[in-house]
From TrEMBL:
Naturally occurring in which organism (per UniProt): Nocardioides antri
UniProt cross-references to Gene3D superfamilies, sorted A to Z: Winged helix-like DNA-binding domain superfamily/Winged helix DNA-binding domain
InterPro entries, sorted: ArsR-like_HTH (IPR011991), HTH_ArsR_DNA-bd_dom (IPR001845), WH-like_DNA-bd_sf (IPR036388), WH_DNA-bd_sf (IPR036390)
Protein name according to UniProt: Helix-turn-helix transcriptional regulator
Gene Ontology MF annotations: DNA-binding transcription factor activity
Domain HTH arsR-type intervals: 1-109
Length: 168
């Protein structure tokens, strides 16, 4: 596996960087904007954004002059295919997802939601249909994502781990 691919996969194995990718799905943001939204320091936001950029997970959408400096605006191009992780990298990503899900769960609101945990035996056709539905739901949310706190929007969570298991 190339160093570039390893860098890309490791970059997603951190809960804060997963939050950044979510933020940057709906809009391009500067490090200062990301820092304010996540309640972290500008230096910390810049560091993690650089790692995501170096791993080719975010792109520079533009630059703007701010108080004598130049601020880069980063965006997560969710429409690009992501590389296939190694088993070790995938395990790290799942750990980061689980940690981030626990944080988000603490901020849930009463009302409509869906919680499912299942280990089931189904037909291949049923599995294919479910996998396509999950992919469509994920794509729809990513395509419709907007800048945080845009009027008329609500914060939502979608954490999905759907996969075929080996027979034991």
């Amino acid at each position: 596996m190339s160093d570039e691919r390893i860098s890309t996969l490791r970059a997603t194995a951190h809960p804060l960087r997963l939050r950044m990718l979510s933020l940057l799905t709906g809009t391009a943001m500067s490090a200062a904007e990301v820092a304010r939204e996540l309640g972290i320091t500008h230096a910390n936001a810049s560091y993690h954004l650089r790692l995501l950029h170096d791993a080719d997970l975010v792109v520079v959408e533009g630059e703007e002059r701010i108080r004598g400096g130049v601020a880069k605006r980063y965006r997560y191009p969710h429409e690009r295919p992501e590389p296939k992780p190694s088993p070790a990298d995938l395990t790290a990503q799942v750990h980061a997802m689980a940690q981030e899900l626990l944080r988000r769960f603490e901020h849930r609101r009463p009302g409509r939601g869906s919680f499912t945990d299942a280990e089931l035996w189904v037909t291949e056709e049923t599995w294919q249909e479910v996998a396509e539905m999950v992919e469509r739901a994920s794509r729809l949310l990513h395509e419709q994502a907007q800048r945080p706190r845009t009027e008329g929007t609500i914060p939502v969570n979608l954490t999905v781990a759907a996969f075929r298991m080996e027979q034991s």
